[in-house]
């Protein structure tokens, strides 16, 4: 089985003065502006790194939900923040690190079991498998 989803980007102009629009197939993003200033200068608008972070956080969290279910645990809440690091390196820019911060409320789980299952989700998440970046993870069980 193959599932295909898409996102689109439109760009006009040179790198610093130009601007673009990002959209998703679902319409969750529709002509969201992005450009040099939103990526490197903190201006309002989107950028590829935050989109990668959102996709990674969503995928990892869903994978963890599945793994928790396989362990006969159900999360009351899972919150994941994926911080994507864009760094200037020799030959241009790269994303060498993505850090996942996970906080969960999982009745019946211990911190150790929760961390073990989270590591399994990090390794098995399809988006994690996509990246060559060093993906780190901090886990905190609440409740």
UniProtKB/TrEMBL annotation:
<dbReference type="InterPro" id="IPR015946">
    <property type="entry name" value="KH_dom-like_a/b"/>
</dbReference>
<dbReference type="GO" id="GO:0004601">
    <property type="term" value="F:peroxidase activity"/>
</dbReference>
<dbReference type="InterPro" id="IPR019904">
    <property type="entry name" value="Peroxiredoxin_OsmC"/>
</dbReference>
<dbReference type="Pfam" id="PF02566">
    <property type="entry name" value="OsmC"/>
</dbReference>
<dbReference type="GO" id="GO:0006979">
    <property type="term" value="P:response to oxidative stress"/>
</dbReference>
<dbReference type="InterPro" id="IPR036102">
    <property type="entry name" value="OsmC/Ohrsf"/>
</dbReference>
<protein>
    <submittedName>
        <fullName>Peroxiredoxin</fullName>
    </submittedName>
</protein>
<dbReference type="InterPro" id="IPR052707">
    <property type="entry name" value="OsmC_Ohr_Peroxiredoxin"/>
</dbReference>
<dbReference type="InterPro" id="IPR003718">
    <property type="entry name" value="OsmC/Ohr_fam"/>
</dbReference>
